[in-house]
Write a structure and sequence with these properties.
Blueprint: H1 5-8, H2 11-15, H3 17-27, H4 32-36, E1 42-45, E2 60-75, E3 85-93, E4 98-104, H5 109-114, E5 120-130, E6 133-137, E7 140-143, H6 149-154, E8 159-162, H7 171-181, H8 194-199, H9 205-213, H10 218-249, H11 262-269, H12 276-289, E9 296-301, H13 307-320, E10 324-328, H14 332-346, E11 363-367, H15 373-385, E12 388-393, E13 407-413, H16 420-427, E14 435-440, H17 446-452, E15 457-461, E16 471-477, H18 482-497, E17 501-505, H19 522-527, H20 534-543, E18 551-554, H21 560-571, E19 577-580, E20 593-598, H22 606-613, E21 623-629, H23 636-646, H24 650-661, H25 663-670, H26 687-703, H27 711-720, H28 723-731
Parallel strand pairs: 4-6, 9-14, 9-15, 10-12, 10-13, 11-12, 13-14, 16-21, 17-19, 17-20, 18-19, 20-21
Antiparallel strand pairs: 1-8, 2-3, 2-5, 3-4, 5-6, 5-7
C-alpha cells in the first residue's frame, strides 16, 4: 500500500508499546490511520448528562454524571475477619436516574478522597445487577474539573466524544491517544474525485477527520459523518463496479434454448401455471444466458416461492443449448432432496438414455461424498461424456477428478453457506467461465444486496405460489407461563392426531464434550443455563408429554446414511415428531408437517427463525410455529421474538435483524470474515447514499477502469481490499 507514510506509522512508535498492544489486540487498530478512523460512538454534552435510566446490562459503558453522595462502610469477611473490610458506595445521578458505584478493599482510598458530592466525572465500567439494582463495580473514572483549561481542552470543548472502548482501554484514554495523532489527519489522501466532492458539497477528508474527533458544534459532527459515509459507500461501490466491469470483459458461450426442446416439453407437463414473478425472473435469467458474457445473478425468494422451479427451467434451457448445468447444495441431505424433487418434476424427461425415457430427455445425476465407488464412477463417466445434462451435488462436485463435457451454468443454493473458493473452483470447470445463478431464501434488503452482493445483478421472487397456507406464529413464555408450554405439547399431539407431523428445533446437539476452559461459576450457570439439546429433549418428550408418538432425532454429526434414513422416514410419514438442530433450516420439504416448536428461540437470529418457520405450512393445511423462550417480557430478546411472530414478511424481518445486529456483522460474514469496512455507514438508513454511490462508482469505472487519474481513490481501494478482501472479490 502506498499510503502517506504519516498515516502508515505503527501506533507502537507513536503511543508506546503497551497502549499499542491493547489497541491492536482488542480494537484491531495498528497504524495512525486506523486510529484516526476509529470514530466516536456518540458525544456527551458537558451541560447535559447521559441517561442512566437506560443503561444496557452486561455492557461496557461510559457515562458522564455527578456524584450525589458517597459512603464508606466497614464489614467482616473471610479476608478481613475483624470487621476491617471496607466498601465505598458512591451514588451518581444525571437527572434521568441514579446509579451506584462500588469500590472495595485498598481500592477505596483514592475515590474516597476524589469523588465528593457535587463532583462531575466520566465513569466507565461494566453494568451489573446487585440486590436488584444496577451498579458499576470498580469503574475507571476521569474527573471533569470545572473550567480548568487542561481537562476541558482535551475533552474537545463542549462536546465529549465517547469512543467504542474495551475494559482494558477506557474511552477517554482512546480520546487522548487520538488527540496525539490528530495532526497527521492533514496528510490524509482524499479518495473522492474533486468533481464528486464539490458537486455534493462535502468537506475534505482531513477536515472531516478533524471535525469528527474534535467537533465544536453538532453541525461539525453532521458534516463529518456525511462526508465519511460517502467515503465508505463510494470506495466499496468502486471495488464492486470494477469487479462487474472485469466480469463483463470475460467471454462466455451464449446459451439460447431451442424452440421445441426440453424446456418446452417440461413446461407442457407442469400441472400449474407459473406465477407472474416466476415468469418475470425467468425472462431476466434467459436474457442473461443469451449474452456472450457470464451471467452473475442473485435470485432471492421467500421460503417456498418456487426458486427451485425457476433454477430448473434455467438448467433445462442450458441443456437445450448443448451445455451442462450443475447445482451445488450445502449439505448431502439437501443435495439428495433437490435431486429427488428435480427428478419428480421432470418425470420421463429425466430418464435420458433409459428405457421409457422421453425423446428429448437428459440424465439427472447425483454426486455426493458418501456415494459408493461404482455409482460414483458411473456418475463421473456420465459427466465427462455429456450423457448427464444436469448434476446435483455437494462440494464433492469440486474435486479434481470431476470433469464436465461442457459446463454452461452453475446454480449455487443458499449462497451464504458456501465458501467463495468452492464456487470459484466449480466455475473453473468450464472451458469458458460458465453462467452463475446464486439462490438464497434469506431475504436481503436492497441496499445490503447492493453492498454485499454488489457484483451480482438481483432478481426477487416475492409472491407465494397458490395453495400455500399461511403460518400462525406465537411466542410461548415458558418461565412466566409454564401452562403455555404444556398447551404447546397438546397442540403437537392434536396435529399428530389429525395425521400431521411436527418439528421440534433445539440450538444444540447434546453430545459435545464440555470444554473445561469454558466452565462458568455456579452463579453464571444459574443465570445462563446451557442451550437445550436435541438428544436430551428428544428423550424427555418421548418419555413425557409426547409419550406414545414416534419421536426421532436428527443432527449434523450423524453419519450421512443415518441422516438420510431419518429424513426419509419423516418424509414418508412414519415419524410423528422430528427433534432436530438447524440442519432442517434449509430446503427440507415435508408438506405434511404442520407444527414447529422452536426451543430457546431467543438463541437464534431473526432471519434464522424465519427460515426455520418456512419448513411448515408447505401443504394445504395451515402451519403453526411456536417460539419457546424463558426470557423476561421486557428483554430485547423477547421483543425480537414478538417481531418474528408479528409478520411473515422476510424483508421486513431482515431489516429488523440488521438494525439489531448492526451491519458490520452482516458484511463481516459475507466478506469472508475480513473486518468490516463500515464504521459510519448504516446499510439500512443510508439507502440513498449507497444507491447514489453505486451510480457514481459505475460512471467513474466506465470512464477510467484502472483509476489512473485518481491516485487517492486507488490508495483507498488498496486499503479496503487488503489481501483477504481482494481474494474475496476476485472469487465473487
Amino acid at each position: 500500500m502506498d499510503l502517506v507514510p504519516a498515516l502508515e506509522e505503527p501506533l507502537k512508535k507513536v503511543l508506546g508499546p503497551a497502549t499499542a498492544k491493547v489497541m491492536a489486540e482488542h480494537l484491531g487498530l495498528h497504524t495512525v490511520g486506523d486510529l484516526l478512523h476509529h470514530y466516536p460512538r456518540r458525544y456527551e454534552e458537558r451541560g447535559q448528562l447521559t441517561h442512566l435510566a437506560d443503561l444496557p446490562m452486561d455492557e461496557h459503558v461510559t457515562v458522564v454524571a455527578q456524584v450525589a453522595d458517597a459512603r464508606l462502610h466497614t464489614f467482616a469477611s473471610a479476608k478481613a475477619p475483624r470487621g476491617k473490610g471496607q466498601r465505598l458506595e458512591v451514588t451518581i445521578t444525571d437527572g434521568s436516574g441514579r446509579l451506584q458505584l462500588v469500590f472495595f478493599g485498598n481500592g477505596v482510598h483514592k475515590p474516597h478522597k476524589e469523588l465528593l458530592p457535587g463532583t462531575r466525572a466520566m465513569f466507565a465500567g461494566k453494568v451489573s445487577v446487585f440486590n436488584r439494582r444496577l451498579q458499576l463495580a470498580h469503574p475507571a473514572y476521569e474527573l471533569l474539573k470545572g473550567d480548568a483549561e487542561d481537562a476541558v481542552d482535551t475533552w474537545a470543548g463542549a462536546l465529549i466524544p465517547i469512543y467504542p472502548a474495551t475494559a482494558k482501554l477506557e474511552s477517554w484514554k482512546i480520546g487522548k491517544a487520538i488527540q496525539t495523532v490528530l495532526p497527521s489527519a492533514q496528510e490524509a489522501v482524499d479518495p473522492l474525485p474533486d468533481s464528486l466532492r464539490e458537486g455534493r458539497r462535502l468537506v475534505s477528508l482531513p477536515e472531516a477527520l478533524l471535525r469528527i474527533h474534535r467537533p465544536h458544534t453538532k453541525a461539525d459532527i453532521a458534516d463529518a459523518r456525511d462526508r465519511l459515509k460517502w467515503d465508505e459507500a463510494f470506495v466499496l461501490q468502486v471495488a464492486l463496479a470494477r469487479r462487474r466491469h472485469a466480469d463483463a470483459q470475460l467471454p462466455a458461450v451464449a446459451r439460447k434454448p431451442k424452440p421445441d426442446g426440453l424446456l418446452t416439453a417440461f413446461d407442457d407437463r407442469l400441472p400449474f401455471t407459473l406465477t407472474e414473478g416466476q415468469q418475470k425472473v425467468s425472462r431476466e435469467i434467459f436474457d442473461d444466458l443469451a449474452t456472450e458474457h457470464p451471467m452473475h445473478r442473485l435470485l432471492q425468494g421467500e421460503v417456498g416461492s418456487g426458486k427451485t422451479l425457476v433454477a430448473l427451467r434455467a438448467m433445462l434451457a442450458v441443456v437445450d443449448a448443448g451445455g451442462q448445468a450443475a447445482m451445488l447444495a450445502p449439505t448431502e441431505v439437501l443435495a439428495q432432496q433437490h435431486h429427488r424433487s428435480v427428478v419428480e418434476m421432470m418425470g420421463e424427461l429425466a430418464e435420458g438414455g433409459m428405457l421409457g425415457g422421453a425423446e428429448q430427455a437428459t440424465k439427472v445425476i447425483l454426486l455426493t461424498g458418501s456415494m459408493g465407488t461404482a455409482a460414483r464412477r458411473q456418475a463421473l463417466l456420465d459427466l465427462v461424456t455429456g450423457e448427464a445434462g444436469i448434476v446435483i451435488g455437494t462440494h464433492a462436485l469440486i474435486e479434481d477428478k470431476v470433469q464436465f463435457h461442457d459446463l454452461g451454468l452453475v446454480v449455487v443454493d443458499e449462497q451464504h453457506r458456501f465458501g467463495v473458493e468452492q464456487r470459484d473452483a466449480l466455475r473453473g470447470k468450464g472451458k469458458q467461465p460458465p453462467h452463475l445463478l446464486v439462490m438464497t431464501a434469506t431475504p436481503i434488503p436492497r441496499t445490503v444486496a447492493m453492498t454485499v452482493f454488489g457484483d451480482l445483478e438481483t432478481s426477487v421472487l416475492d409472491q407465494l405460489p397458490a395453495g400455500r397456507s399461511p403460518i400462525a406464529s406465537h411466542v410461548v413464555p415458558a418461565a412466566d407461563k409454564p401452562h403455555f408450554l404444556a398447551r404447546a405439547w397438546e397442540r403437537v399431539r392434536e396435529e399428530a392426531g389429525k395425521g400431521h407431523q411436527a418439528y421440534v428445533v433445539c440450538p444444540r446437539i447434546g453430545d459435545e464434550d464440555e470444554d473445561p476452559k469454558k466452565r462458568k461459576s455456579p452463579e453464571d450457570e444459574a443465570e445462563k443455563r446451557p442451550p437445550l439439546a436435541v438428544l436430551d429433549v428428544a428423550g424427555q418428550l418421548a418419555g413425557g408429554p409426547l409419550q406414545g408418538l414416534k419421536v426421532e432425532a436428527l443432527h449434523g454429526r450423524m453419519p450421512p446414511d443415518d441422516k438420510d434414513a431419518v429424513m426419509r422416514r419423516f418424509a414418508a410419514g412414519e415419524t410423528d415428531v422430528l427433534v432436530a438442530t438447524t440442519v432442517i433450516e434449509v430446503g427440507v420439504n415435508v408438506p405434511n408437517a404442520t407444527v414447529m416448536v422452536i426451543m430457546d428461540a431467543d438463541r437464534f437470529g431473526v432471519s434464522q427463525l424465519h427460515q426455520l418457520r418456512g419448513r411448515v405450512g408447505r401443504g394445504s393445511a395451515p402451519g403453526l410455529c411456536l417460539l419457546v423462550t424463558e426470557m423476561p417480557e421486557a428483554s430485547a430478546a423477547r421483543q425480537r421474538l414478538n417481531a418474528v411472530a408479528a409478520t411473515l414478511d422476510g424483508f421486513e424481518l431482515s431489516r429488523i435483524d440488521l438494525e439489531q445486529r448492526r451491519e458490520g456483522d452482516v458484511l463481516g460474514q459475507a466478506q469472508s470474515g475480513a473486518r468490516t469496512s463500515l464504521r459510519v455507514l448504516a446499510v439500512i438508513e443510508d439507502e440513498e447514499i449507497i444507491a447514489e454511490a453505486r451510480e457514481e462508482a459505475a460512471a467513474v469505472v466506465a470512464a477510467d477502469p484502472e483509476l489512473t487519474r485518481l491516485p487517492g481513490l486507488r490508495t483507498a481501494l488498496d486499503a479496503l481490499l487488503d489481501e483477504e478482501r481482494e481474494q474475496y472479490l476476485e472469487k465473487g
